[in-house]
Write a structure and sequence with these properties.
about 450 residues; 2 domains; alpha/beta; globular
Length: about 450
């Protein structure tokens, strides 16, 4: 039985506007270049002094890829040089060695994630070596949530075995679309067979959760053609799915100019593709967690959402709340209670900083008290699909409707369209509101209007 009784494409189209994905609040475009390496180091020391037993989350950015996917929006580097990868791993270890001694040895890692780029572009021996290096410098929780992003192209069973030996128990892989014409247009030729092999190896080796990414809005996609991809994915039966709206931003990612704009499906067709995809996935037993994320009802994400223990950070939805996040590698972002920090996105600058025995931080943000309140409300909307006003009032000593006098009127149109229910004691995401939950969260974002007016930096919400 489908989760949504009716999906109105016209209503979805009404709310198809640029907006943050709220993996953080405030969003990364607000980070300031005034925040540098010294600030980051001082914050590490201060945070560890105050939180000597709280859990950690580690993110490692591995930027290298073998080929360029024309749709890509990630911070990545194309290379065929194994020496270049080895050099990066050397500097990555140096950064780890600068940070690890500053962290209390009592603190344990509850979440680990390797992203990219393509972490599986490392050789099996490099995977084991880097995994061991981290494990020797940090203490892991027994029930650690350890996820890695892989590319089935060029993958072997030995790669997956190495990831398991390095402690990973979750895997995420991109498919995007199985149609040969679409794959040719975006320079990502990936057969159903090699995708199934990657899934089968993951299951054989004991990975607890398998996620697959799809993208709608790619060149030459049609309603019938993309439905065939969705049917194949349902048969493969991953635990989780992310169905992303393609962010065509050639002004930010110049290589996307390789894709002719006239080959992209129209905004109306994209909405119909998304609608059909939602209907097929929820009809097949997947639960819409929110936005474009789906999970089997027995999956930890779906269970955590029912228990209101779901969390959201730069790794996406997670069951591990309350962790201080440390990011390693070029472009990596971290977050402590009051601050965000980000490394340089330029490889030579990353190396130069570490050659000076300095951290590579080039931007960050210091949160104020209002940021904390708004972040809490936005995260409850994104994760719980509900905000209980009395809890927020008790936690922060405010009167909810007074504090958010700017936000409440913005909910009016959403309420009229049946996407949200506003009551004296709570705000509840309703029905199709799950699909436009970013729009609902934007009502509470103090900076959204300024960011959107300055430059087009966000993907559309649907």
């Amino acid at each position: 039985m489908s989760q949504f009784q009716h999906i109105n494409v016209e209503v979805l189209g009404k709310y198809s506007s640029p907006g943050p994905r709220y993996t953080s609040y405030p969003s990364a475009p607000l980070f300031s270049s005034a925040y540098r390496a010294d600030h980051y180091r001082q914050e590490i020391l201060r945070t560890n002094s105050a939180n000597q037993a709280s859990p950690l989350s580690l993110y490692v950015h591995l930027p290298f890829c073998d080929t360029l996917c024309y749709f890509c929006g990630c911070t990545m580097v194309i290379t065929h040089s194994r020496e270049r990868i080895a050099e990066y791993n050397k500097y990555l270890k140096k950064e780890i060695d600068l940070v690890a001694p500053l962290i209390s040895p009592q603190r344990r890692v509850a979440q680990l994630h390797w992203g990219g780029g393509t972490p599986s572009y490392l050789s099996p021996d490099e995977i084991r070596d880097l995994g061991t290096y981290l494990a020797e410098r940090f203490r892991y929780e027994a029930d650690i949530e350890a996820g890695v992003e892989i590319d089935p192209r060029g993958l072997t069973r030995e790669h997956m075995k190495a990831f398991r030996e390095a402690g990973f128990n979750r895997v995420s892989m991109g498919v995007q679309d199985f149609d040969p014409r679409v794959q040719e247009a975006v320079n990502r030729k990936q057969s159903e067979r090699i995708t199934r092999d990657a899934v089968e190896w993951s299951r054989e080796l004991g990975f607890k959760s398998i996620n697959i990414d799809l993208i709608y809005g790619l060149p030459y996609q049609t309603l019938e053609q993309f439905e065939k991809t969705v049917e194949t994915i349902i048969d493969i039966s991953p635990d989780r799915l992310a169905v992303f709206n393609y962010a065509y931003v050639p002004w930010l990612k110049p290589h996307q100019n390789i894709i002719p704009a006239e080959t992209l499906p129209s905004p109306e067709l994209k909405l119909h593709i998304f609608k059909r995809t939602i209907e097929r996935l929820t009809g097949a037993g997947y639960w819409n967690i929110g936005m474009d994320h789906f999970a089997k009802r027995s999956d930890e994400l779906a269970v955590a959402q029912q228990k209101k223990t779901l969390y959201r950070n730069f790794q996406g939805y997670s069951t591990k709340a309350g962790c201080d996040l440390y990011g390693f590698g070029m472009s990596a972002i971290g977050h402590f209670r009051d601050t965000y920090h980000q490394n340089t996105k330029v490889l030579r600058e990353y190396y130069a900083a570490l050659d000076r025995n300095s951290l590579a931080t080039v931007a960050g943000y210091q949160m104020n008290s209002d940021d904390h309140i708004r972040k809490d409300v936005i995260m409850r909307i994104m994760c719980d699909m509900e905000v209980e006003k009395p809890l927020i009032e008790q936690r922060y000593g405010i009167r909810f409707d007074e504090h958010f006098a700017d936000a409440m009127p913005k909910l009016g149109p959403l309420e009229e369209d049946g996407l949200v229910v506003v009551e004296p004691d709570r705000i509840t995401v309703n029905g199709m509101g799950r699909l436009v939950v970013r729009n609902i969260a934007m009502c509470f974002d103090a900076y959204i209007e300024k960011m959107i007016q300055e430059k087009p930096i966000f993907s559309k919400t649907v």
